[in-house]
Amino acid sequence: MNSSIKKLLAAALIAATCVFAAGCSSSDSGSADKKEIAIGVTAGPHAEVMEQVAKEAEKQGLTIKVVEFNDFVQPNKALAEGDLDMNSMQHQPYLDNVVKNQGMKLTSIGKTIILPMAVYSHKYKNISEVADGAKVTIPNDPTNGGRALLLLQQVGLITLKNGTSVDASVPDIVNNPKHLEFIELDAAQIPRSLDDTDLACVNTNYAIPAGLNPQKDSLLVEDKDSPYANVMVVREDEANNETYKKVLAIYQSEPIKKFINEHFQGTILPAF
């Protein structure tokens, strides 16, 4: 009887040891080679392109979970807090501003697409028609607000004291000959402001879902040499993660470039 009990106890101990070891091995393997990657995007082109990336990634054994947001703020917050693995929804100046002013430990690992900002109007057919006292909506985040002001400065509607700085804001306007009234809104809300304002400076990722084509419908649009290329972003300590590098390589592959060129017909361009 004692011999039998000893054998049972030994078997149980061996089984428990195997289960513990297997559990440790599985956990280590999962952290080293993550198979599902949660990537934050904003609605519109960023989401559309990432869905195609997810399809290509699946062919290579990676599962991408596309998490869609309706603003620029939450995707960085979610990434910094560990709720996302990566995000793809912002240009480099915007990211630089977030890192500088909010202290988020985030970094870009490569370029994705260029979405030119454009100025739209339901009232005017040409930028030269803009009347005295016209109301203008611009994004209320620092870099996209500055981007809109720089675009308006290009055609002489305003002059900024700091010239071409991406940090420009409304108080930096030193000359406003048409006495434009600036209304700062969340970037996602600006397309809906067109009926209530005279000019609207809209990011392309929000213009397209609203039925606006920057090449056909705008009064003014950034050219293809815009410095505002969008980037893929990760936490600083994950900058060398091989799985995330693989996701970037898939994004920058020929099938994705072909999709971008054919699907968006030049309104959005590959930045790689």
Q: Overview of this structure, please?
A:
The protein has two domains: 35-115 and 228-270, 3-Layer(aba) Sandwich (D-Maltodextrin-Binding Protein, domain 2); 118-221, D-Maltodextrin-Binding Protein, domain 2 (3-Layer(aba) Sandwich). The longest helix has 31 residues, at 2-32. It is of the alpha/beta class. The protein contains eight helices and 13 strands. Helices cover 38% and strands 23% of the residues. Strand 1 (36-42), helix 2 and strand 2 (63-69) form a beta-alpha-beta unit.
Look at the helices and sheets and give the structural class.
Answer: alpha/beta
Q: What is the CATH class designation of the largest domain?
A: Alpha Beta
Question: Which of globular, elongated, flat, extended, rod-shaped describes the shape?
Answer: globular
Number of domains: 2
Care to count the β-strands?
13
Q: Helical content, roughly?
A: 25-40%
Largest sheet: 6 strands, mixed
Gyration radius, in Å: 25 Å
Strand order of the largest sheet: 2-1-3-12-4-13
Write out the CATH superfamily name of the largest domain.
Answer: Periplasmic binding protein-like II
Terminal-residue CA separation = 74 Å
Low-confidence stretches: 1-32
Overall pLDDT level = 88
Element order, helices and strands?
HEHEHEHEEEHEEEEHEEHHE
Put simply, the count of helices is 8
Could you say what the CATH topology of the largest domain is called?
A: D-Maltodextrin-Binding Protein, domain 2
Q: Into which percentage range does the β-strand content fall? A: 15-25%
**CATH architecture term of the largest domain:** 3-Layer(aba) Sandwich
